[in-house]
Structures are given as structure tokens and as C-alpha cells.
Design a protein that fits this description.
By secondary structure, the protein is of the alpha/beta class. It has a domain of about 70 residues. It is built from twelve helices and 21 strands. Strands 3, 4, 6, 7, 9, 11, 13, 15, 17, 19 and 20 form an eleven-stranded mixed β-sheet that branches. It has a ten-stranded mixed β-sheet with strand order 2-1-5-8-10-12-14-16-18-21. The radius of gyration is 22 Å and the shape is globular.
């Protein structure tokens, strides 16, 4: 009982602090967001169609209204945003000198097409000509919107993410700078995975990249997307948006690997819409950033639609990563399966708030969500809050979460067999993540995650690891 009271007191304190922060936002909008002067300066450097500019102005008006309101307490009360100062970041009008940024996924596989964004601007697009022969559109978002307005405008920030969904969505809708567009026409299959890389190379850059994927009826596609910083010292801001549209009988595999440096603030509203008999497999990987908050919606809008959501998070130092997920069952016979696994070390923190929502028409729904956390230090903390909101009466919905520490007996057993502490830790963490790995059918993603876990644990290669048990503490 005492522990419960302590936990409630802490949540209330953080909520009160965020309330003060929101009051500060009303008095000094520039600290939490961008004001009208920044917006007009941003527009003056744009070269775009009039209808896009008009949509930006509408979004900025909504953003100004939402900026004066408090953030939703249920979603943000455990995330302290007081240190965030938007005045330190600005969008840039050019990509600057092209820099080579190391990508975890980008250098380990063959792709059917690739697009690279640097500081909010597309600097490389490859494979689009071959894809265009099949009617596939793949390239920089603004150019595609202007060239194919009639086809794409009905999807852009209308079916998945609305500009007035929350403050960050409106902020993004007003300032979005390029991004990735993938449109796959009816009954067409993209055989090789496509790759999108979003990079930040300069200090103080605000990036508002947008990803829009539309897989038409009976089509199939795979897109692997990752974010990366050019160096560890450049502070950055990313306010992103991801929209995944899966039409009738279509299939989409989407992987997003977030690997910003630990001086980057990362906010994003991400949503998928799946129509009749459509299938969405969505893998989210959280490795980087100083503070990150992801709002993720999975909308099962068609009968017999399904979604599988995989999450892998590994935090260290003083990182804080927050997820707010919703599996929204809107029609009969829909299925969702969400599995998040988090590993925390040092003084890092992870927050996961999940909800399965079932509407009245969504009879015979099968919904599942689970979040498991493994803490490698006594200072780490994970808050996992699953939830159900069910209005139908013929459903099967289950949820659960676990949080625990590494069993020291397991480490001792491994070390008694000649295995170093680092190797033992790696084996335990790999085993913890293995269930998620087994759900990912893309070898390059599984291999990359395994290698990244080694780096997070301070292991370059197991063969070269000769550290003794006392060399490093976890």
C-alpha cells in the first residue's frame, strides 16, 4: 500500500509540473513551440503549391489554439517537458553540404529503392525509375504531392493523422519539411524492401519529416526507415509524422528504427489504417534520443483486418522514452497483437501506456497487448500501464505487463562456466528480445538489432571480449 501511495504522489507531482509548463506556454509560446514570426519566416523560404501553403496556415491556426491548452494528462503526466525549449531549434532552408551518416540498416542489404533526407531535405533518391515502370510512386513527399495531387491529397493528413489530433500533429502539419512517399497501385508487389534514411547533421536543426505509405487493394510492400544523427554532440529536434494506409486485401511491413543521438528531442504522431482483410506488420525500435514521445494508433477500420505490432527498446544513461499506443478495433472480426520489450540500464526511463479500444460494431474482436521490461540497474525505471476500453460483447481481449531485474544467479552460473559478465549479460538480453526477433521476418532487421544490442552493452564482438567480471558494472 505504501508503494502505491508513493507512485501516485509522484505522478501527481509530475502532472502539476506539466501544468505549470503549459501555463508558461500560454505566456511565452516560443519556449514550448514556434510563434507567428518563425512561421512566416519559414513560409518565405518555401517554394511550393498554393494549396499546400493554405493547408499549412490552417494547421498553424490550430497549433496556436492547442499551444495555449494543457497537454492530455493521461498521455503526458509522466513525461516532464520543462527542460524543452523550442527556441533553440529552427527549420533550415537548405540541406547544406552532403554528409555521409552511418546507417544501421542502410549498409547491410540490397534495396529496391532508397531515399535519404538530410536536415529536412531530400538529398538522394534511387530506384524510383524502375519502380515507376510498375506504377509505383517512391520519392520525396512534396514533389510527389505536387505532381500527383488528385491521387495523393485525399490521403495526406486526412485518413490516418489529423492536424488537430494534438499539439504535435498540428505543429508538424504547419512546418513539415519533405519526407518519404510510397504509393503501390492495385495488385502490385514491391519485391525488394525499400529504405528511407532521415538524418540530422547540424546543431540546432528542427526536422519535420513526414512518411506517407499507401498500399492499394491487393498490393504488397516493405519499407525500412531509420533516423540517425551525424555526430553525438549536435542538439536536434524532430517532430515527425507517419501515416500508413493499407487498403483491402493489401499487406504492408513497416520498420522504423529510431537512433537519434542523446541530445535530440523526438516527438511523433504515427497511425496506421487497415481496411478489409488487410494486414499490417509494424516494428518500432527505440534506441536513441534524449527524450522521445511516440503516439502510435493502429486503426482496424475494415472487417477481418489485422495488425501485428513489435517494439524493441534499449535505453541507457539518462534517456527517457515514452510510448502511447492504441489498438482501435472498429469492425467485426479484427485482430491485433502488440508485443513490446524494453531493456533499461543506468538511470534511463521508459514509459508505455497501451490501450485496446473496441467499438460496438467490432464483434468477434481478438486483441492482445503485452509489454515486458528488463532493468539492468537499480536506478532504471519502467512504467507500464496496459488498458482496455470495450463496448462490444463478443470479444477476446487480453493485456499484461511485467517488469524485473536480471537474475544475478543466472550471471553467477554463466561466470562459473567461464563466461564473462559481459557475455552473460548479452546472452540474457538477447534471450529477452528473442521472442520479438522471431516475429520479424526480415533478416537484416533481426541481425541489425542483435548487433546494436552488443554495442549498447559495450561489446564490439564476443570474440574480442576479454573483460573480466570486475571491469564493468551494470
Amino acid at each position: 500500500m505504501c508503494v502505491w501511495l508513493i507512485a501516485v504522489e509522484e505522478c501527481i507531482d509530475v502532472e502539476e509540473m506539466n501544468g505549470k509548463a503549459m501555463s508558461l506556454a500560454a505566456k511565452h509560446p516560443g519556449r514550448i513551440g514556434f510563434d507567428i514570426e518563425v512561421f512566416e519566416q519559414f513560409l518565405s523560404g518555401r517554394r511550393e503549391a498554393d494549396w499546400i501553403t493554405a493547408a499549412r496556415r490552417d494547421a498553424f491556426e490550430k497549433y496556436t489554439q492547442l499551444l495555449a491548452q494543457e497537454l492530455p494528462a493521461e498521455e503526458f503526466k509522466r513525461l516532464d517537458l520543462r527542460p524543452f525549449n523550442a527556441e533553440l531549434f529552427r527549420p533550415v532552408s537548405d540541406s547544406g553540404e552532403l554528409e555521409a551518416v552511418s546507417a544501421l540498416l542502410g549498409e547491410t542489404s540490397d534495396y529496391g529503392g532508397r531515399i535519404v533526407h538530410q536536415d529536412g531535405h531530400a538529398v538522394e533518391v534511387s530506384g524510383s525509375d524502375q519502380l515507376a515502370e510498375k506504377g509505383i510512386l517512391f520519392g520525396e513527399l512534396q514533389a510527389m504531392l505536387e505532381q500527383h495531387r488528385e491521387l495523393l491529397e485525399p490521403f495526406f493528413m486526412r485518413r490516418a493523422v489529423s492536424p488537430d489530433a494534438d499539439r504535435f500533429s498540428a505543429w508538424h502539419a504547419a512546418f513539415w519539411t519533405g519526407g518519404t512517399l510510397l504509393y503501390v497501385p492495385r495488385n502490385v508487389e514491391v519485391e525488394l524492401p525499400l529504405h528511407s534514411l532521415i538524418t540530422s547533421t547540424r546543431n540546432g536543426v528542427a526536422d519535420f519529416s513526414h512518411t506517407l505509405i499507401i498500399v492499394d487493394e491487393g498490393a504488397r510492400a516493405t519499407l525500412l526507415e531509420e533516423t540517425a544523427s551525424a555526430d553525438a554532440d549536435s542538439a536536434g529536434l524532430h517532430v515527425g509524422c507517419v501515416e500508413l494506409i493499407v487498403e483491402r486485401d493489401a499487406q504492408l511491413r513497416y520498420v522504423q528504427l529510431q537512433n537519434w543521438n542523446q541530445k535530440t528531442w523526438h516527438f511523433a504522431h504515427q497511425a496506421g489504417v487497415v481496411e478489409n482483410n488487410g494486414t499490417l506488420q509494424w516494428t518500432v525500435v527505440g534506441l536513441g534520443s534524449r527524450v522521445s514521445h511516440i503516439h502510435q494508433d493502429i486503426n482496424l477500420a475494415g472487417r477481418a483486418s489485422s495488425a501485428e505490432v513489435n517494439g524493441v527498446t534499449f535505453t541507457s544513461d539518462r534517456q527517457k522514452l515514452s510510448y502511447y499506443t492504441q489498438q482501435h478495433h472498429q469492425q467485426q472480426g479484427t485482430r491485433s497483437d502488440l508485443l513490446y520489450r524494453e531493456v533499461l540500464r543506468d538511470e534511463s526511463r521508459v514509459i508505455w501506456r497501451g490501450m485496446i479500444k473496441v467499438d460496438i460494431p467490432a464483434q468477434q474482436t481478438d486483441g492482445y497487448q503485452r509489454s515486458d521490461a528488463l532493468m539492468l540497474s537499480e536506478e532504471a525505471r519502467c512504467d507500464s500501464i496496459p488498458g482496455l476500453e470495450i463496448e462490444a460483447d463478443d470479444v477476446r481481449c487480453t493485456h499484461g505487463s511485467t517488469t524485473g531485474r536480471v537474475d544475478q544467479d543466472q550471471i553467477l552460473y554463466c561466470m562459473s562456466r567461464g563466461i564473462t559478465r559481459n557475455e552473460a549479460m548479452h546472452m540474457i538480453v538477447e534471450g529477452f528480445f528473442q521472442e520479438v526477433y522471431d516475429r520479424i521476418p526480415i533478416p537484416v532487421v533481426r541481425d541489425t538489432l542483435s548487433q546494436t544490442v552488443q554495442k549498447k552493452l559495450g561489446i564490439e564482438t564476443l570474440a574480442a571480449d576479454v573483460m573480466s567480471a570486475d571491469d564493468e558494472e551494470f
